[in-house]
Design brief:
The chain is an alpha+beta fold. Helices cover 49% and strands 15% of the residues. Helix 2 crosses helix 3 and helix 3 packs parallel to helix 6. The longest helix is centred in the C-terminal third of the chain and has 18 residues. The chain is globular, with a radius of gyration of 14 Å.
């Protein structure tokens, strides 16, 4: 089971929004640290109320370029959402990133419905920016 599928399953099994919210905050602790040098204005994602930084690099693995993603946020719940983004898109090829619609995968968990409009829009902005950087 991948970290993303495990998170999606856990979110689906939790009976109420409060427990899902707590789980997302726990996910924040699993997000690999972003180097401080990458937390620049240039790496801030526009469209987010909280500050969210994103960098995408590429590494060769088995003659295929795969992502090296760093994410961080100054808000704990948003950082947990970034952990979901990281688990979905880190170490993926450009084709895999283009084919993966994380907001759609999250629909059965009802997570997006329980986020404030600003957080939901920010989350989608991060996914779109990541996909644009990988295009």
């Amino acid at each position: 089971m991948t970290p993303l599928s495990e998170a999606l399953e856990t979110l689906s099994l939790l009976p109420d929004w409060e427990q899902r919210y707590t789980y997302v905050i726990e996910l924040a602790r699993s997000l690999p640290p972003m180097p401080e040098a990458e937390k620049t204005e240039q790496n801030l994602v526009p469209g987010c109320t909280s500050r969210v930084w994103l960098t995408v690099g590429w590494k060769d693995a088995n003659e295929e370029e795969r992502t090296e993603i760093h994410l961080d946020s100054d808000a704990l719940i948003v950082k947990g959402l970034m952990a979901l983004v990281h688990s979905a898109y880190h170490n993926k090829t450009r084709h895999e990133i283009a084919a993966l619609d994380l907001p759609e995968l999250l629909k059965p968990t009802n997570l997006m419905q329980h986020l404030s409009p600003n957080r939901r829009n920010g989350f989608v902005s991060v996914v779109k920016r990541l996909q644009a950087l990988a295009a």
